[in-house]
Amino acid sequence: MKRKITFRAWHKLAHKMVSIDMLDFALDAYRAKAGKSLGSGHLADIELMQYTDLKDRDGQPIYEGDIVMSGLGGNIGEVLFGGYAFRIKSITGQWGGELRMFEFNGLKDIGNIYENAEIKSYPQTYLDNLSNRS
User: Fold this and answer.
1) Structural domain tally of the chain?
2) Nearest to 53 by CA among 65, 42, 63, 39
3) Which residues contact 13 (CB under 8 A, 6 or more apart)?
4) Relative to the CA of 59, which of 50, 71, 93, 105 has its CA 20 to 30 Å away?
5) What is d(CA 27, CA 25) in angstroms, rounded to the nearest whole number?
6) Are 33 and 18 in contact, with CB atoms under 8 Å apart?
7) Contact 100, 61 (CB under 8 A)
8) Nearest in space to 19 (alpha carbons), one of 1, 4, 31
């Protein structure tokens, strides 16, 4: 089974997420889209995040660097790539380390480590705010 490997990136200078259109490692260059704008630059200006080929329970694509929450008890973790697989590293501590992504069903993508760093730093505050909305 073939799958298209796709990326998005955090643009370090513009402080926004962009969709990667082209990568050229030999020329140290990328081309990206942000909304209707198209731009290019050096690879050092971006942090690449690969698509996991999985979607959350609402159909949103899950990328490396995303922060996800399980439906069981509100456990929160960061999506990482390591050991030849995508993994979830626990932020809240309930998982006791890292687990392979395919071990989870019903994940909810709640943000990413760049645009939502406060979730990673203060996961309990995020969970408390969810409880207060109910």
Assistant:
1) 1
2) 63
3) 45
4) 93
5) 5
6) yes
7) no
8) 31
Residue 2 within any structural domain of the chain: no
CATH number, residue 108: 2.30.30.290
Residue 27: inside a domain: yes
Per-residue pLDDT of the chain (134 residues; tens, 9 = 90+): 577 889 999 999 999 999 998 999 999 999 898 777 778 899 999 999 999 988 898 999 999 999 998 876 678 889 998 878 888 888 877 666 666 666 667 888 999 999 988 888 877 777 777 656 54
Element (H, E) at 123: helix 123-133
Q: Torsions phi, psi of 61, nearest 5?
A: -65, 140
* Residue whose token pair is 């207060």: 132
Range of the domain at 73: 7-133
The predicted pLDDT at position 62 comes to 93
Supply the pLDDT for residue 107.
Answer: 87
42 within domain boundaries: yes
The H-or-E segment that residue 53 falls in is: strand 46-55
Alpha carbons 27 and 23: distance in angstroms, whole number: 9
Tokens of 42: 């050096």
How far apart are the C-alpha atoms of 92 and 47, rounded to whole Å? Answer: 24
